[in-house]
Amino acid sequence: MPSDKKRLSSGLTVTSKVFVMSRNGSATKVVREHYLRDDIVCYSTACNKCAELIKENPDGQIPNIQLSDVPAKLQNERHYIVVDTNIVLSAIDLLENTECFYDVIIPQTVLDEVKNKSFPIYQRLRSLVKAEEKRFVVFHNEFHEGTYVTRKHGESMNDRNDRAIRKVVSWYDNHINHDNSIEKINLVFVCNDKDCRKKAEAEGIYTKSLVDYVEMLPKADYLRELVSNDNQTFTEFQNEAKYQEYYSEARIMAGVKNKSLFKGILNISRYNFLQGTVQVPDFKKPLLVVGTKNLNRAFNSDLVVVELLPQDKWRSPSSTIVEEGSIDDYDNPDDDDDGATASNGIIPDKERILLAQEATKAITLASSGNTDVEHKLQPTAKVVGVIRRSWRYYVGQIAPTSVSADDNGNASRACFVVLMDTVLPKIRIRTRRAKELLGKRIVISVDSWEATSKYPSGHFVRSLGDIESTEAETEALLLEHDVEYRPFATNVLNCLPKEGDKWKVPENLDNGDEQLKKRKDLRGELVCSIDPPNCVDIDDALHAKPLPNGNFQVGVHIADVTHFVKANTALDDEGASRGTSVYLVDRRIDMLPLLLGTNLCSLNPYIDRYAFSVIWEVDKDANIVSVEFTKSIIRSREAFSYEAAQKRIDDKSQNDELTKSMRILLNLSKKLKQKRLNNGALNLASPEVKVHMDSETSDPGEVEIKQLLETNSLVEEFMLFANISVARKIYDSYPQTAMLRRHAPPPASNFEQLNDMLSVRKNGMHISLENSKALADSLDNCIDPKDEYFNTLVRIMSTRCMMAAEYFPSGFFGYSDFKHYGLAVDIYTHFTSPIRRYCDIVVHRQLAGAIGYEDLAQSHRDKNKMEFIVKNINKRHRNAQFAGRASIEYYVGQVMKSNESIQEGYVIKCFNNGIVVLVPKFGIEGLIRLEDLGDTDSAIYDEDKFELHFNDLHKNKRTIGVFDKVKVEIKSIKDEISGKRKAQLILQ
């Protein structure tokens, strides 16, 4: 509880915030002072008092943007707007719309909440504040004596923040309209929370929901469809279903504490939208959540609370492919009698039959006397609460069957939007433009999913363009993976050197610049870079030379991005928000502006560049004798592609010093790699392909599997070497906040099915999981003498069983948990790609602090701030990977439109109604449904042998199982439901 306020001689007011923090069972009392001011201006040019205050303090902080003294009229009264947090989060597109929302006050409370909940939206809000024409201002209510509110006893933080926002509205109303001889300016509080609006009205505040506010605007007809429904426009569907209501917050908290409830992220199966899993530490296997009723309105990736079901309802994972269209057949959105009404439940007949079959299978298994029952069954659960929704902007298309043929566009009608992400349900929206939007990629936002509605409700945001147009599909995949792709804002670009591309390293290193004097001049070393062809953002370069004592000096030189990207600037904030560059087939979405990434920071040859260097002395067996970390200046002698470097190394007629140094690097890299493999480093695989683009038309040409050369490995080994050395250095200096990267060992349950497949289908083959060395050795032994690709296939399937690597601050784990399982090293970080990864920027700053080059920013020494940074970059890194794969999938589909062919494939999954086949040449995998294989009535699935028996289309008996090599014809087709083009595989 805060203590009484105290007025200081400076005019400030100070309050004391008292916190009780529990650590290891002991309570610690923490007291923090909180300073309040009475001279924070209101930003309104209509306010005489604040205008005088600014005149009296010409050296103070004068706001760049001011609220208009003649704001727009609303029902003949001029007004300013105050919005709450949920309005910003759910309607940022509308706030940015040029047809509405001017003179908007953003309380600091709202800004802070938005930053914590969505950093990208926070960045967009900050851009609005800087856009003069929109006149958005941030009012620092948390530091204003007249608007700061303390938290009451028993009050939730959410309720306290709502009260703080209402206090801002009341203060502005009194402040603007008191003792100012101007036309009255109304304050309109826009809020969708009914309880908060009710309290606001009781306090005399003029408040409107977003829907009601938009209805009062001149262009309401145009804007109406862009507004969150707020459960108001789908009232006619409120009795079509009856899901279980979510448990109360108190019941959830108590249940999680006493272990009767569990929380975790829900992951929906990509092959069965009726089945999800939730991984919780209390169970070795993930909890299965099966069926519409038990999923209870949860979306994929929601943070949910689940309740365990009785053991007689435990199941094995479904062996049936289930797609949404096969269950509900796309109900009429305007028909509330759709087979799922409140009277007969929410489960369609087809789903009811499937669930009954799965239950029968479980009972048969349990009563079979099989001692391996426990191995097959998984605990099941139902969703009883959603802690955090994963809702974002989604991309899809309007389902043609949901649009009435006589729709003339004059009335707003309900229709369904089928999302590109097939594990998500279709969304019901209301629009008068349904016919116009048919065949378009559209963006929608989800607003709610009531217990009385069979489908979630949302609203239309905007159209991206025609389905299958390159621009629309590319923008769609960027939105789907939450990639920030808009141009860099002016305030970000203003952080770049004023000289622009004419900037260069000073000729005179002794020019009085103290930091420049600390740099080591390495321009005399034979430095070169080795990268993919046509690489323009060169992060790293290397050099090597023999030493008189028989050892070698080896240097890794990394672009010194932090020389240009200073902490806590707009440029740094943008890099932190984007987290990583995103590489698509036809373009690159940069983390930093082009001037830095491809020019000033890129280690281009024949020109001086700032670098951060790691220089080792190593013996002939690549053992470290010493290591030095230094800021430096280098001049690369050459920028090689992998192929060009390999040719030069292999060409025996080339014996110049630069070629000799590359041969030293190659020789040492082989020894480094062998050491890692001896320690248990994994050599996994993924079906990576490259799409060649026509240089003139930018059309996709052909697809090829990526070929790796020794020079690929050369670069990789020394980047790993540098990352490990830097990780040790920054951890020694910052044991609580060092930016590290870990890779947890996989739980045995992740490999259960793969091991079962290998045992049954490949004569007892087995992947050992005792440690990474055992796993690596067992992967080496998975060899089929008749099939050279089989070992690669097993490595690909093993990769999918592994845990994802993650960034973390060192203080969040014990040292034993730092281990990177895949690399078999005890500590690791990312240092070598600061142009394209924000993690590396943080590491550069920490390393600079560790060697005394410059002080480390507070944001990289604070555990809470570091936790915020790593959460964002983990998400951004993962999204970038998915976006890159989606881009390849799209372009492979375009290539296949005119290149139908028959290829070899491998069965990687078997179900009772289909198989999944991987085609190595194109790096694609496709589902072949049973009805496309042959006679559905004759099919028998042997779950123990992972085999499907059926009569093919020519009435021939066939048996196909996992790992079988098959011939498939590949065609490119457009899915009429989702609009996505994908490869169709036809078994030969």
- What is the count of DSSP helices, taking H or I runs of 4+ residues? 29
Uncertain regions: pLDDT < 50 for 5+ in a row? 22-26, 335-344
Biggest beta sheet attributes: 6 strands, mixed
What is the terminal-to-terminal distance?
A: 74 Å
Q: What best-fitting shape do the alpha-carbon axes yield?
A: globular
Number of strands: 40
Radius of gyration: 31 Å
Structural descriptors:
988 residues, alpha+beta, Rossmann fold, OB fold (Dihydrolipoamide Acetyltransferase, E2P), 6 domains, 6-stranded mixed β-sheet, 5-stranded antiparallel β-sheet, 29 helices, globular
Structure description:
The protein has 988 residues and is an alpha+beta fold. The protein has six domains: 31 residues, no CATH class; 156 residues, 3-Layer(aba) Sandwich (Rossmann fold); 216 residues, OB fold (Dihydrolipoamide Acetyltransferase, E2P) (Beta Barrel), CATH 2.40.50.690; 304 residues, no CATH class; 58 residues, no CATH class; 88 residues, Nucleic acid-binding proteins (OB fold (Dihydrolipoamide Acetyltransferase, E2P)), CATH 2.40.50.140. Helices cover 30% and strands 24% of the residues. It contains 29 helices and 40 strands. Strands 4, 5, 6, 7, 8 and 9 form a six-stranded mixed β-sheet that branches. Helix 4 runs antiparallel to helix 5, helix 22 packs across helix 23 and helix 23 packs across helix 27. The longest helix is centred in the C-terminal third of the chain and has 34 residues. Pfam families: OB_Dis3, PIN_4, RNB, Rrp44_CSD1, Rrp44_S1.
Give the helix/strand layout.
Layout (H helix, E strand, L loop, with lengths): L5 E2 L5 E11 L2 E11 L11 H9 L16 E2 L2 E7 L1 H6 L1 H5 L7 E4 H10 L1 H12 L5 E4 L17 H20 L9 E5 L3 H9 L4 E2 L1 H6 L4 H4 L25 H9 L3 E8 L6 E4 L8 E4 L1 H4 L7 E6 L15 H5 L20 H18 L6 H4 L4 E8 L4 E6 L14 E7 L7 E5 L2 H4 L2 E9 L8 E10 L3 H11 L9 H4 L20 H5 L1 E2 L6 E4 L8 E7 L5 E8 L10 H9 L3 E2 L4 E2 L4 H7 L7 E11 L5 E12 L2 E4 H9 L6 H23 L9 E5 L6 E6 L4 H24 L5 E4 L9 H10 L10 H9 L9 H10 L6 E4 L28 H13 L12 H34 L4 E11 L2 E6 L4 E6 H4 L6 E3 L4 E5 L5 E5 L3 E10 L6 E7 L1
Parallel strand pairs: 5-6, 5-8, 6-7, 8-9, 20-27, 21-28
Antiparallel strand pairs: 1-2, 2-3, 4-5, 10-11, 10-13, 11-12, 13-14, 15-16, 15-18, 16-17, 18-19, 22-23, 23-26, 24-25, 26-27, 29-30, 31-32, 33-34, 33-39, 34-35, 36-37, 37-38, 39-40
Helix pairs in contact: 4-5, 16-28, 22-23, 23-27
